[in-house]
Amino acid sequence: MITMTVLAFRDALPGGGRLMGLDVGTKTIGVALCDAGWTIATAAELMKRGKFSADLERLKVTVAGQGVKGLVVGLPLNLNGSDSPRTQSVRAFARNLAPLGLPILLWDERWSTQAVTRTLIDADASRARRAELVDKMAAAYILQGAIDALTMS
């Protein structure tokens, strides 16, 4: 099941459980995890993109090892809320995650990278360090926004 509706996603997870957030880029995938109680999201890793089959296998290992029950995938909408070619690519990526057998929430990520970049600049992180951290921190930002919505609705 793929949805953009928080309530439908929450209904697909009646027992709660650990969630994994993904910030899908063209070269990397930022990965974040949250606790089973949906309290806090934490940046986990930055995966270099390769063939999709290899990316899927790496995600399967993380899902199994961390006991992940659902996925939150950042959806890069245009500023006006419309789809772009990048949005369509991420939707296709999410559809291709079906072999994981997990519910998927597509989450609006329009401001995630900018927010994380500002935080890193404020923390005086070097440009190289920001490049290293931004995608996995964006995944945590996306996941935190989703779990906040899940626990409030």
What does this structure look like?
The two termini are about 20 Å apart. The chain is about 45% helix and about 25% strand. Strands 1-6-5-2-3-4 form a six-stranded mixed β-sheet, sandwiched between helices. The protein contains five helices and six strands. The longest helix has 26 residues, at about 125-150.
Write the layout of secondary structure elements.
Blueprint: E1 2-3, H1 6-11, E2 18-24, E3 28-34, E4 41-48, H2 52-66, E5 68-75, H3 85-95, E6 104-108, H4 112-122, H5 127-152
Parallel strand pairs: 1-6, 2-5, 5-6
Antiparallel strand pairs: 2-3, 3-4
Helix pairs in contact: 4-5
User: Which H/E pattern describes the elements?
Assistant: EHEEEHEHEHH
The shape is globular
The share of residues in helices is: 40-55%
CATH third-tier fold name: Nucleotidyltransferase, domain 5
Core attributes:
6 strands; alpha/beta; 5 helices; 153 residues; Nucleotidyltransferase, domain 5; six-stranded mixed beta sheet
What's the quick description here?
This protein has 153 residues and is α/β, with parallel strands linked by helices. It has helices at residues 6-11, 52-66, 85-95, 112-122, 127-152; strands at 2-3, 18-24, 28-34, 41-48, 68-75, 104-108.
